Amino acid sequence: MGRKMNVLEDDGRPLTAFSISLRKLREQADNPTLTQLADKSGYSQPRLSELFNAKKVPAEDLLRDVVTALGGDADQWSERLQRLRAAEQDFHRATARDGDSPQAQIARLELENKKLRELTEQPGVVFAQALTAQDSASRRIQAAARLERRALNLLKTAQEEYHLLYERAPEAEERAAAIIADGAATAARLELRGRSRHDEIVTEAHSRADAIIAKAEDTAREMVQNAEKHSKDHRANTYASVNKTLKDIDQLRVEAEQAVRQATSQRASLEMRAKIEIERLVREAQQHLEKAGAGEQVRALDLLLLDFNITGSHAATRGRHARQPKPGRAALPNGSKPQLDLIAQPPRPGWTGWTLPQQRQ
After folding, report:
1. What span, in angstroms and rounded, lies between the C-alpha atoms of 299 and 357?
2. Is 223 exposed, middle or buried (0-12, 13-18, 19+ CB in 10 A)?
3. Sign (positive or negative) of CA dihedral 79, 80, 83, 88
4. Distance, CA of 225 to chain centre
5. CA 322 to each of CA 84, 223, 282, 312, 314: distance values in angstroms, whole numbers, following the listed order
6. CA-to-CA separations, 352 to 280, 345, 347, in angstroms, rounded
7. Which residues contact 246 (CB under 8 A, 6 or more apart)?
8. What is the pLDDT of residue 330?
């Protein structure tokens, strides 16, 4: 007789039950030690210990060699190994879920049903099967009742959330309208600010250029008059001074032209920033409208962008601000329509579209 094995309690896991059955086969073979069994089967003691202590699902070759060394039917145990692998997968899927969720409870019930089917295949345990079946049926009835109560609670919660969302739909429409109005006001402010700033920069540039040119001309005239008063001995130096002054005048004119170009560039930059800000605000409004199901107002905002001569090609408005087209939009409850028809109307009689100031030649 070999040394007595450690106690392995049945914890409900299929692998544990499999190892317990394998221990019974080992006891029927006079309970050989792991050393003796390693000599017969050709496997190391650590691998044999894992097999008898339910550490992991064994390989088929290992199981067949050990069962053969213990005098068992290797083919029968191979079939049981296949059933074990399927049961282990079900067990891990069940334990991976939340312990109290309906899916986990259903998975545990399925495992119990499989265990019951395995019990019915073993003769001589009729009373144990009946008691186990009765206990399992009671647990299933209790679990079914819990599932029914939970399903009713979930249904009630879903109905309450649906009514809450339906009641908040007008609020979403109002917020979308406020966002659109704020976007239009911001666009108008940016347009006015850009036009004013452009005029100021151009006026300032022209004024500075005129002042520089006038100053240069006065300086040149003064130097020419002084040069005429000098003697012939100083005419060579005077000519050099005049040439230097003329170069300074050219440099001043170049600076004046650069100032004008900078003003023009700043004006174009302000126009671009205004367009980008307009498109960003309108895209955010379109996202809110799409969530509210206001497809007609979304298309009206697309026309508004066209009136601003904005085609969505700006790099700054791509990514999260770019509106992605969808195959369809859900309608609002009870066929209601968003209160945003004013967006599609011109802001004043005779209005022909939003425009930005043209560059001054």
Report:
1. 26
2. middle
3. negative
4. 77
5. 53, 63, 10, 8, 10
6. 23, 11, 10
7. 220
8. 44
Dist. CA 85–CA 240, nearest whole Å: 103
The 10s digit of each residue's pLDDT in 121-140 is: 555 544 554 565 576 567 66
pLDDT digits (tens, 9 = 90+) for 285-308: 989 999 998 888 888 888 888 887
Burial 233-259, CB ≥16 within 10 A → b, else e: eeeeebeeeeeebeeebeebeeebeeb
The CA-atom distances, in angstroms, between 246 and each of 181, 210, 219 are: 57, 16, 10
Task: Please report the DSSP string for 244-277 in residue order.
Answer: HHHHHHHHHHHHHHHHHHHHHHHHHHHHHHHHHH
DSSP string of 129-168? HHHHHHHHHHHHHHHHHHHHHHHHHHHHHHHHHHHHHHHH
Which residue type is seen at 257? E
Residue 95, amino acid = T
**Residue 284, SS3?**
helix
What whole-number distance in Å separates Cα of residue 86 and Cα of residue 118?
Answer: 13
Type of residue numbered 88: E
Chain centre to alpha carbon of residue 124: 59
Q: Which two tokens stand for residue 141?
A: 């009835």
CA angle (135 as vertex; 132, 136 as ends), nearest 5: 80
Residue 304 burial class via C-beta count within 10 angstroms: exposed 0-12, middle 13-18, buried 19 and up: buried
How much is the CA Rg of the chain, to the nearest whole Å?
A: 44
